[in-house]
Amino acid sequence: MIKSKRIIIKLISSSGSNHYYTTTKNKNNNKISIKKYDPIIRKHIIYNEFKK
Question: Is 20 exposed, middle or buried (0-12, 13-18, 19+ CB in 10 A)?
Fold first, then answer.
């Protein structure tokens, strides 16, 4: 069987709301922080990686 080089991660809102996105990333990459839309606050804020 071939092992996948990608892992599932959770991107958690840095504003304190309970909103999150799930995505995959390469195991060899560093931590991810992306600016995305938070529908609870209705603004674009930074989402940080959290391992699922």
Answer: middle
